[in-house]
Amino acid sequence: MKTKDIATKYRISQSKFDDWLTKTKPVPFKSSMMGGISIDSDADVEVAVSRFEQHVAELDARASEERAAQDAQRAAVERAAEEKRKALASMLITSGFNFDGYTITKYSGYISGDDVVQIDRGTSGFFSSATNVGDSLMKSLSGIRRKALAELKEAAYDLGCNAVVGVDFDYLTLDPETASSSGGTMYLPYVFGVTANGNAVIIEKN
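^ that's the sequence the OP posted. Answer follows.
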């Protein structure tokens, strides 16, 4: 019986059956010059189909187990991300060194968070104007401070802490320049950086 007819009779995939049959050789079979495969004995057909269906069932079971494991891993990652989001959202920070109604039970050390922004100088001329550095900086300052604080909280979370005390900010300004290919001076964008500093602690409500 040709595998084409076997596949039709037993409702299995011919291509997968042919591939499995030629690789595992569970029963005698013949390959024709035209590329077809046939099994002469009806008993061998029954054996081959039975083993093939068992093989497919094992593959399906393994795939199901792998999907379940991936789903469990994905769910664990999502739970951890949600727990972290809630922990960061509820984390207390202060420029002082204590919180009313809480007791500091552990100091985990000095931490910091940073962010930086570049502000173009702009050009002057008939069709352009120099950048107003002050306005551009003030528009960016609150954003880079928030990012520095977010990084500070991340650092505290990584240490297993739930609060930060003694928070302050350091600011850095750079006016970079370099030599141009013509030997002149090329003025690069202004750089403004902010660092949020503090001490990571664990606090417990009184």
